[in-house]
Every structure is written in C-alpha cells, then in structure tokens.
Amino acid sequence: MDYTLFVIQLLNGLQLGILLFLVASGLTLVFGILDFVNLAHGSVYMLGAFICASLTFALGNFVYALLISLPIVAVIGYGFERLIARPLYERDHLDHVLGTFGAILVIDTLAHMIWGPAGIAIPLPAALDGQTQLAPGIVVPTFRLAIITAGLIAAAGLYWLVNHTRTGMLIRAGASNRTMVTALGVDIQALFSFVFAIGAALAGLAGMLIAPITEASLGMGNNIIITAFVVIIVGGIGSMKGAFLAALLIGLIDTLGRAFLDDIFKLFMSSSAAENSAPAISSMSIYLIMALILFFRPQGLFPPKLR
Amino acid sequence: MKKLITTLLGTSLLATSALAADVKIGFVTTLTTPAAVIGKDMQNAVNLAMEHLGGKAGAHNLEVIFGDDGFAPDTGKQVTDRLVKQDQVDFVAGYIWSHVLLASRKSALDAGKILISSNAGPSQMAGKLCHENFFSASWQNDQTPMAMGEVLNKAGVKSLYIMAPNYAAGKDMVAGVERTFKGEIVGKDLTKWGADAQLDFSAELAKAKASGADGIFVFYPGAAAGAFTKQYHQAGLKDNLPLYSVFTVDGISLPKLQAANFSGIVGSKVTQEWDPSLDNVANQKFVSDFKAKYGTYPSFYAAQSYDTIRMIAAAVEKVDGDMSDMDGIRAALKSADYDSVRGSYSYGSNNFPVQNFYLREVVVDGDGNWTTQVVDTVLTNHVDPHAADCKMK
C-alpha cells in the first residue's frame, strides 16, 4: 500500500474524528452530568455554521466571524437550557427526546425561514484556502490542518477546564453525586447552565469549522448527531476521555473504510461486486463497531468511574 | 343547514368552471431538506408556466397541486398515492430523483394516470419498465454522461477517476460515461446519498489525486455540488486533475459558488440537453421572464419543469379537455407538438426524448453573473441506450 496516501487518509480520519469529538463532548457532558438527552444538540451545530456564514459575509473574514460566533452560540445554548431543557430535567428520558425533537423541528424551520433552503458556501481567507506540504508527497488542504489544530486546542482547553479548575471539579462532582453537591451549597442550576453553554459552544465550533468544507445547510446537524451518539455510546456515556478516543476511532474507521475497503474487497471478490458492496459496508462500519462494543462492553470503552 | 347553503353557494360559483372541466396536475418535487433548493426552482418554473398559460389549456382550467417527497423514496411514494387517491389528479409529474420516481411509478401507473418525469430518467424505466403512460420531459440518465464521455475522448483524456452518489441515478451516470469513454477508468467511488448524504469527500479526493488520472468525472446534483466544488478547489486539484462534471455545475450551484467567489469554476465545461443561451423564441421568453420574476437564471430543472406543464397543456388542448380519451392524450404527448425551450425534439419508442446534447461552458454574463453558454453540439438526435430493451414499439 502507498504509504503517503495512507498518511493523508489518517489525517482525514483525524480531522473527522476531531469534529465528532467537538459535537460528542457537549453531548456527553450534558447526558453524563445533567442526565438529559439533548437531540437538539445537532441544531446548535447547524446554527453555528449559519451564524458564522452570515458573519463571514458581513465582516469579510472567516476567522473574525468564527471568533464572534462562538460567544453567540454559547448564549444560545444558555438560553436553550433556561427555556427548554430546565423544565424537562425532572421528567423521564422519553420526554427529553420528545421535547428536544420538537426543538429540532422549530430550529430547522426557523433556519429555513431566515437563511432559505439553499445553504451557504463560506469563502476562506487566502492563507487557509491553499495546500500545505507536510513531507514529500504529503500535501493536504491547509484548512483541514487548521480544523485539526483548532479542535485539538479546544480539546486541550476542555481537558484543562474539567480536570484542573475549580469549576471542573464541581462539574465532575455534579456528575458523581448531584444531591451531595447541592447539599454542599453549590448553585447546581448555574453550573448546569454553564455546562450547557460550553457544550453548545463546542458543537457550534464544529459546525463553523465544517461549514467552509460542506457549506452551512439545513439538516446538517441531524446527520452528525446520530454519529455523535454512536461516539458517546462507544466511549462510555459521561466520559470525556471516552468521547475523545471513541471520536478518533469512529473518524478513522469511517474514513479508512471509505478509502480502502473496496481495494481490500477486490482481493477476494470480483471488482464489480467490490465496487457495489464496499460503499454499503463502509457506511455501516461504525454501527457494526457500536454493536460489537455494546455486545462485549455494554457500558462503553471508558465508562466514568462513579455514578 | 348552514353547510347545505355553503355547498349550494359553492356549486353555483363553480358552475361556470365545471363546464370547462378542470384538469389537475400533481407535481412531486423536494420542498424540504437542503435539496429543496432544486424543488423551489422547479416550483418557480411551474408557476411561471401557469402564468404564461393564464392557468388554462385552451378553454380548460389547469390546477397544479405540489407534493413534497422529502428527498426519500418512501415519502415520495406516499405523496404520489395521496395525489392519485385523495386529490384525484389527472397527471402526475415532477420527480427530481431516480430512486423516488422508481418507488412512486406504480402508484401513478396502476391507477391509470399519465406520469411525466421532469428530471429523473432511470435506466429501468427507459428499458424493461417502460410504459405507455410514462413520458420523460428530460432525458435518460445515461445520456448526459455519454455526451461527456465523447467530450473526454475529444479532449484526449486517457485515464479517468469517477465519483458519484450511491443511488439509482448515480449508477446510471457512471454506466453512461463508461459507455462512451474510450480510456482507462483508474478508480471509482460511490458515496452515501439521501437526506443524510456524505458531503465531506476528503478520503475520496485524496484517492483520486493519488490515482494519477488525467481527469475526474463527477455527478453531484443539488447541495452536494457546492460542497464538492469547494473541496476540489481547496485540495488544489484544478491543475493536475481537471474536473469534468454532469448535473453539478448548474443554475442552482453557480450563484452560490459566485457568492463565495470560487473563480476556478469559470471556464469549466458540462454537458446538458438545454441551456439558457439556446436561441429559440420559447426559451428567450422563458429565461428573460424567469430572471425578471425570480432574479436568477433558471436551471435545467426549471426548464424541464416549464416544459412539463407546457406539454401537458398542449395535450389537454388537443383532446379538448376530455380526460377519458387516453389514446388521444398519449398521441398528443408523443407528438411533442409544443414549443419546448430546448427547441423541437421527438419521442422514441420508450417515450424518452430523442434530442441534442450540448457542451456548455461557465461564463460571466454582461451583468457580471455567472452562467453557462453553449459552445458545441456533442450528440445530435440521440436515442438512449436502453430504448432497445423496451417492448413498446
């Protein structure tokens, strides 16, 4: 196998994995700590993309637009928690699903009314629009490297926040035993709002980063939310480390499957059969992985220690 | 009592039009999901056609009822059933997507309705599944890429990489270009399609680049077109892997590509049976009125939808609104005796158009808008390759 192509595909898989992590981390925080199923998490991803697209055209620069969109999306997440999520905490998961599914429909329709059905292509500044040579033969689009870098910075920031700050300590404590934390005098509601806002900002960031590649489009969040749920199930619900490693695993499996599965199939079946079956199998691959993990480790790869 | 009065009032109001025997057209397209951008363009064209006709075919009122297929075959079938059974339409038309049309055809044809495709042209329905009540107002899927295959041969392309979505039309498009392209096909990717289609092509583009092909052939209609073109551009493939596409760079994607200033796309060439620059009276009127009303160039989807309504109107007029005269309607449709915006054409034995295919180039028009214009005629009076499998004569 050609090693330069393999390295490029690894980078592509890494990029997909990091985007998945940004979406899944918010989902796992909210699910793990607040015990709240938020299907509308993907809608924030879409809103991030659309808001960033509009600002890019208003300001003329994608990077500034992204920096301004981040707090906007966080505020949206905060508002969502106050208005929609909070009244639902006391109810069971099915009500969470119904409530947030309704929110998806409302947000999708609002986006349709504001931005139209067409989707928006976002132009990149020249510095990000070209290609970068990493090593002889390994040339990748600069923007994809930028996604990997931005995603890793966000992941590192999140790690620092959760593991090395007082807020992070409270978040972890809240995840382990909510009642005890409240009894100790911590304002758990404020903490939850903060977690929701952080989760929204991370999902929004993912949407902003993917938009210059695939466009901001309606329903984009609904596609990624399913994969994000696969990630947190594989990683172990509520575990940040699990979400990170599972996201990279899923990203790599999906990308490498699309890249090499037909060549592998051609080794033992006719080339036309391989061409037909490879796309089907590769789009199934992540669900096959999830099924296997659920069978052998129903709690996921890295379940949080205390529940 | 109140109800009775309302009914009586309604009847008296309808009395005049009841004499004129209304003809109903069900028009199925995609009005939700990102693909709604195509559906909207088609809807605009249908409305423009109705406006040009004054809502009438001769003395008979026409009514169009739109249905949304949600970009999914099962929803498409449901909405077709509803149009046929509940709304009792006389014609079922529209259909962007081949897999939706294939799923819906039985609902319309088994009920004895006339079915007209305004876009999708799946190979099955041109061949074994051809039907006397099914007509295409567009093309058979294989034909446009066949024209592109000829263009590739002429351009001296020796090896080709192919990418298309994994559904009925994607497979037809690939088969089409393979039919005429004489060089070697060094790689092929069929990607996930539907409401949750794959839009990040990093892995596929990396493979295409590594394959060392002379060119890349793609088919990515609708919203995927913008995504593909951007990534092709970002991967810097313009110079070493020239792009040859069908149904990808069109009236739908060009305004968006222009807004994001992807100037690399100007000058690229695509094949099609229609173009806004085609010089005939019907087309000039259609294009200028469409631009005046909606502010953009019509896409080929719009042109075919406009033709669909014109062709139905001409047939209804010919049988004088007598919807029981099915033989008369079929004969009228088959004669293609209306002013098509693509110029005159005829119907083959399988009720698919026998028509020309043009090579179009992306250019900047007088007002600075990006559009296409015809540079060459690639195929003349072309019959699709599946016509021979059709038992109708």
Provide an overview of this structure.
- The complex is a heterodimer of chains A (307) and B (393).
- Chain A is mostly helical and 307 residues long.
- Chain A has one domain (3-296): ABC transporter involved in vitamin B12 uptake, BtuC.
- Chain A contains 12 helices and 2 strands.
- Chain A has helices at residues 3-34, 41-59, 62-85, 93-115, 126-129, 142-164, 166-176, 178-183, 188-214, 220-235, 240-266, 271-296; strands spanning 131-135, 138-141.
- Chain A is globular.
- The termini of chain A are far apart.
- Chain B folds into 2 domains: 2-141 and 278-354, Response regulator (Rossmann fold, 3-Layer(aba) Sandwich), CATH 3.40.50.2300; 143-273 and 357-382, 3-Layer(aba) Sandwich (Rossmann fold), CATH 3.40.50.
- Chain B is built from 13 helices and 14 strands.
- The radius of gyration of chain B is 21 Å and the shape is globular.
- The model of chain B is unreliable at 7-20 (pLDDT under 50).
- The interface between A and B is large, with 49 and 39 residues.
Q: Can you give me a brief rundown of this structure?
A:
By secondary structure, chain A is mostly helical. Helices cover 78% and strands 3% of the residues of chain A.
